[in-house]
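Hi V.,

You were right to ask for the full record rather than a summary. Here it is.
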Amino acid sequence: MLSCENHSFIKERNKSLQDSISLFIEKANNYEIPKSKALEHLVKAESLVNSLPKDSLYFKNKIYVGFIYFNLGIKDKYKTISFELINDAIEAKDSFYLARSYSYIGDYYTDKVVLDSAVIYYQNAEKVYFGIKDNIGIGRMHVKMATAKFRARDYLGSEKSAVMALTYIRLANNKLLEYEANTSLGLACVETKDYEKADEYFQKAYKIAREENLENLGQYQSKAISLNNLGFLNLKSGKYKEALNYFNQANQDSNLKIEFPELYATILDNKAKAKLKLGDFSGLPGDFFEPLKIRKNFNLTPEIVNSNINLSEYYQAKGIPDSAKYYAQAAYDLARKTNILNLRLTSVQQLSKVDPENESTLSKEQINLTDSLLQAERQVSEKFARIAYETDEFKRQKERLSAQNQNIIVFSLLGFLLIILLYVVKDQRSRNYQFKLKEAQQRANEEIFALMLSQQKMMDESVQKEKQRIGQELHDGVLGRLFGARLNLDSANRRDDEKGFEIRNHYINELKYIEQAALLQGWACMPDSAAPPPRTLLQKPCGASGAPSTCGTTRTTCRCPDTQECVGGICKVGAAPAAGSIIYVLLDMSSS
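Predicted structure:
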């Protein structure tokens, strides 16, 4: 409950802060109030933004604050905020806003005409965009690098960057960036005097401007810009009538002067120059002075120098040398205050034309500036090439690392699968080995069982043979003696004297011996586990085996009609205990 309440409180607090920030930013962005008042609102907005957590809302608000500082002309503060954004994005691990922050620093250095530093920061932003695979961001950075390289007179580098921009932009189908890239390519081709390709790229840009509503994408007066570029191309290539026609078309929008006074000044100045080249002085020099006034209001130094040079050319054509020299000198003095070598070279060239007295000195300066410009262009080109090489090397390293990571993953998976395969093979072999052991053990058990059956069979055969032998012995020996004893007892029963008693006593003892022998013979033919001791057998009655008996335990109830045949049959089947019982019966019979 407390956690939910805290979350709700933080959410409400951030919403309240955002409302306050939006209010102060809106007031600071109001161009109708004094700059000091706008700055006061902007400082309050910045203070509130710094109290926000480092999330997307914080970055968006801080970017707005930086842009307003830039629009108010406090560009160093804009630079400071951009560097703070870089540190905050690194701390928050936010690649998107890190790339944008690098881009803002590049814009700052482009505005300050420190173009090598601008390209370096654009390059850093491009690396980050490349890391997060943002094709639009990569294309936008290449467009900005193309513009910066063009201003640094690295036209080949500018063309290369614009081509790279188109490569990535077409993947994302962004018409605004495609328009800007074609425009940059056209301008680079104009400076390298490849007018045919320049016309091709300018026509592509103009087609996009006509067919697409680029105003919704943040690009205003795109048709006027394209027409001005086409006019500039024809002006450079000596087609002054075509150039004048394009400039007239570009200047048809009545809102152009109000919405984009710098563009209006450029178009008007180019139009006046085309008329000058055609020898048409109508509207001149007013069409030169109006752009000069606008450019001075916006403090556009390079454009002011160009306006002075155009005025000098006009007065030179009109045959007014003093005015021609005056404006040429003004252009020369202003150009020397800048580090733009090509601007200084252009002003020196015009001054040497209208100031023949100092022509030798100016010619030497012109030569020195030309050499310096060539050297500077070479250095800039080498620096940009080195930056491009480092970027390409970074990309190659990233691709190599990516390939290495993929290889590591693939080889790890293959190794893991190989280990699993080896384990499965080993386990299968172990199972097969155990199965073979069990199979061998089974076969051994079967062989042992077969051997035991064979031995049992042999033992059964031996026992059977032994039974037959004992039966044969009982039949031939014991029964013979019994038969003799029976006959003698029959003869002795007829005598009642003492002699008869002795004879009967003798044959009774003889029967005891025969009984003992029969018991021993019968016990020998039985298995060890089933044969009871002879003494026990002597004590058991005739029916002790559990089978029904027809004879009792006393001599008066015993009835055995044929003693010899009874004993002989029992011994033949191995029933020795029954033989003993029969003998016991015979003993009872003899006692009678």
